[in-house]
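Figure S4 source data
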Amino acid sequence: MTIHSKLASPRATRAVLEQWGLATKKSLGQHFLVADNIVGKITALANLEQTDSVLEVGPGIGTLTVAMLPLVAGVTAIEKDDSLIPALMQNAVESAGSFALIQGDALDISHEQIEAAAASISVVPPNKLVANLPYAVAATIVLEYFKQLSSLQSATVMVQSEVAARMNAAPGTKAYGAYTVKLQLLAQYSGSFNVSPGNFMPPPRVESTVIRLDRCDQLAPNLLNETFMVAEAAFYQRRKNIRNSMLAYFSTRGINSDTIDEVLRTAGVPAQIRGETLSTTDFISLAEVFVDVVGRQLPFGR
């Protein structure tokens, strides 16, 4: 049987934790992957190649890292828990390949820092995100990294199953929302598989899914931001129809009901429907009309 990671077993993981006096931290959502077959399935789904520059968030003790290093040009990792770094560095150094580490919160790290770290090991900016992500921030990390890292072409990530459902939701379903629209403007579903709690130490109380997302054609930045904003507005008050939801969102931005009515009418969107019935293409069209009708750029976000 092929061994993908020397650390992907309960015995090996426990030995590393004991060697370095470590324990899992619930506050950081740490659950160490201890199933080598799952490591192999992750690297296979990511379709890793020798030319790839990989970004890993939350490498922990390096379970997935050591499996990837011999397969790619280099791995740039971001780890928040400084107590894990000595074990991570030792395990990474012992494996083939180039490894760069950024210590800090993945949501505070800039794309310039990531690119500089990759350059320090003579690899190009990361083109693939492959990670067992901290579940509390997984959705945000995937969306923000696709937005900020233009070099990123795919993400193969372990997330909570309900987050994976949001990432791949279809219009009209319960999981479909503003987050889905925004992510699907940047990346499209390419494959997934489920991972049961017994594959982790300690076992999480939720089901997990590894999902791959591939970058799709990106809109011009201004239109992308406007489409993000319109999607936020459409789902701002999810139980209300799209007219009332958008009015509630934009009323604090100086846009009145007449303007919202004109936008919906011009876009051919019935005022009484709910936002979850619109596809990403519909949201792009709605944003284009919004820009034309309002006649000026508005700050994105709330």
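Figure S5 source data
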Amino acid sequence: MTTASLQTPKVAAMQKRPSARHQMLVRQARIVLMPLACAFLMLVFWEAYVRISHVPAVILPGPLVVLATMAEIYPTLLLQAVPTTIESTIGFLISCSLGIVLAVLLCYSRIWREAVYPNLVLIQIIPKIALAPLFILWFGLGAESRLAFSVFISVFPIIVSTYEGLTNVDPNLLRLCRACQAQEWQVFLSVRVPSALPFIFSGMKVSITLAIIGVVIGEFITAQAGLGYLIVASSARSDTPVALAAVVVLCGAGLLLYGIVTGLQSIVNERYSRGGSR
């Protein structure tokens, strides 16, 4: 028996084994298709329940009714989505900037950490919705109150996650930096920031959803435009299909912003991985 004949079964088995790229594509397809299939089944159940139980549209319209309403009033929905999305994005960017700065101060200042961090936790315990009317009293009826409230409820995840990332560093790396007499800013950029990136983006993913919630709550109370205002106005007219259509668009805007954050995370991770492999 020749060596080639002995290796033939092994080679054939390796050829039948799926490649790493194929496995990655299957995994990515599962990540996308499984949630879509689950959502589709829920919509089918919703539509079947509404039709079988003869629920009035003013109480609970079916998905097909909501979809038809969206197709009918889509210019209004897109127009109202613009201020909500813009204000949510601005609030999120302010939260990221403020939260990262405060987290760096907490990391490098023991006095700041001991004096401020417990108060941040205490403020986080307060029910945020109870303070919304006070923000309107303090900042007025314009966009300032909505932005301030959005920042107020979305900055805490950025602070906590960034602080945990900056302090959760391998002690061996820090000792190596001290042995090499590296400057503190070099340690910060080369060690602490790369270690904190997964934590920062985790906080950003939570923060972007909270920023949208803050803006919508403000629109419930004061705004004359936006998806939150449209939801309240249509609910007051018992126009439930329009209210649900606005909720669907609001979910779409939230998914868009969340996807942008996730895409930014992938880009940053890829660049850091390329830099580390060189």
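The chain has two domains: 1-54, 62-277. The mean pLDDT is 83.
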